[in-house]
Amino acid sequence: MRNQSTTLKEYLFDYLDWLELEKGLSSKSQENYSKFLKRFFEFLTVNNLDELKPQDLTKDHIWEYRLFLSRKYKQKSKDRLKRSTQNHYLVALRSFLSFFVEKDIHSLPPDKVKIPKNKEEKTVNFLTIEQVERLLQAPDTSEPAGLRDRTILEVFFSTGLRVAELVALNWEQITINPDITDLEIGIIGKGGHPRTVFFSERCVNWLKQYLRTRKDNEKALFVNYGGRSPLTRLTIRSIERIVKYHALSAGLPLNTTCHTLRHSFATDLLMKGVDLRVVQEFLGHRNIATTQVYTHVTRPHLREIHRKLHGSKI
Fold it and tell me: Per the UniProt record, which residue ranges are transmembrane (predicted)?
């Protein structure tokens, strides 16, 4: 480890190693923490504090950094950073200070980095069942690419997968034979955490149709038909474009995304009375508070059910 003359910036790679070895974070998570922490390093540079050492960090520096974030404009849109985005940067800084604590490096305690509450209620964009059906029927399934796209959309709504999790699916994970009507598989989700996902009977039927058209050796479940030979795995950006294209074709809201389908999956389950903690398991949320955002959406529906079933006179 380094010594007392080491600056804050010089600890970055040691910190990333700590995230990997001690916290078990994936390379993608490490990349995000690095990106967020580099905003703090940018603040140090702007204020001629490049040589600041851990032991010299003060509460005043944290306060100035919060002001910096609050007044910082995005490079492209020139809008102020949202409070939720500012909090991401502060969480990364707090994590950085936790690294110093575990390594017995004297610095400001992590709890001195206050994370303001986000007063803006998180918006959950989801589709109604009627809108989901319109989206599912948008692809032209007489063409290989359209059949693939329909299958992608069916998998999203059946499983609630994140787009990165769907991209990572391999053909070998999907065991399809004439006797199978539904399917469950294990995946490694966000943060390297395993969970089970379930494919409905309808989704399995579309998977069967799609896989019957595959005559290649590419291990990816979903491949690019853009004239490439051999076929290659679809990227996250490609699948985002596919969903956007069919959403527009179906006349759905412009803000319909892959994550909208994940929201729609969760909302549909809650509307049908599935327990919140079961939905948490389906989505792979580590914290129930993350899943509770959906209660803002389903509460009016549940209130109406209560009024109809329990509101009459005895």
Answer: none
